[in-house]
Amino acid sequence: MNNFFTKAALVVSIATLSFGAVAETTSFQAGVTVQNAFTLTNDAALDFGTIRASADLSGAQTASLELAANPATSAITTSTDATAAEIAILVAGTPASFSVSGVSPFGTLTITDPTETAISPDAAPAGTAAFTLGTPTYYVLTGAAANSVATTTIQVDSNGEATFNVGATLTTTAVAATSDYIDGSYSGTFTLELNY
């Protein structure tokens, strides 16, 4: 009887092998969309407010106004010699504000500080004292780490968005000038860079 089952199994095996497996093939496309770009918008300018300023025309002494990125922090004025150079706040200023969107969820962006420094009178004779901008600071309002100080990076939220402020320090001229500050507006253009 074992011989009968062995022969039957052999016949089934041969029958299976003789018909072979049936296979079909097809081709398909693969693709991907790359979006390295994102949107960075300057929502409000950096405004140091209204001040009274006097310069040391020799440039030896300077005064500074530190405007924090955190809107809850008061501005601070200092001077190396207040009898020679001074800044006094008449109307408080506000930090610059920015928004970013279109970033991958919880992506981290690296901050590159502005390299420009000059804040010059918009209309004044040559040789009039100017200011310099330095020491930018960053404060995240919304994002993965909302209400926190940022140093070199900003992390966006699950929607790929964040808002943040930029503060800085305004300093009186550290080079020789022929005339002191005059009433009027002073401005400069600065570049802020964020990148993956």
Q: What structural class results from the helix and strand content?
A: mainly beta
What is the share of helical residues? Answer: under 10%
Largest sheet: 9 strands, antiparallel
Mean pLDDT: 92
Low-pLDDT residue intervals, each spanning 5 or more residues: none
End-to-end gap: 76 Å
Order of helices and strands: HEEEEEEEEEEEEEE
Beta-strand proportion: 35-45%
**What is the molecular shape?**
elongated
The tally of helices reads: 1
Quaternary form: single chain
Number of domains: 1
Give descriptors for this structure.
nine-stranded antiparallel sheet; 1 helix; 196 residues; mainly beta
Compact description:
This protein has 196 residues and is mainly beta. Helix content is 9%, strand content 38%.
Provide an overview of this structure.
By secondary structure, the protein is mainly β. Strands 1, 3, 4, 6, 8, 9, 10, 12 and 13 form a nine-stranded antiparallel β-sheet that branches. It has a three-stranded antiparallel β-sheet with strand order 11-7-14, with no helix packed on it. Strands 2-5 form a two-stranded antiparallel sheet. The protein has one helix at residues 2-19; strands at residues 39-44, 50-54, 63-67, 76-79, 86-91, 96-101, 108-112, 118-121, 131-142, 148-150, 153-155, 162-172, 186-187, 193-195. The mean pLDDT is 92. A hairpin with a 5-residue loop joins strand 9 (131-142) and strand 10.
SSE diagram, text form:
Blueprint lengths: L1 H18 L19 E6 L5 E5 L8 E5 L8 E4 L6 E6 L4 E6 L6 E5 L5 E4 L9 E12 L5 E3 L2 E3 L6 E11 L13 E2 L5 E3 L1
Antiparallel strand pairs: 1-6, 2-5, 3-4, 3-12, 6-12, 7-11, 7-14, 8-9, 8-13, 9-10, 9-12
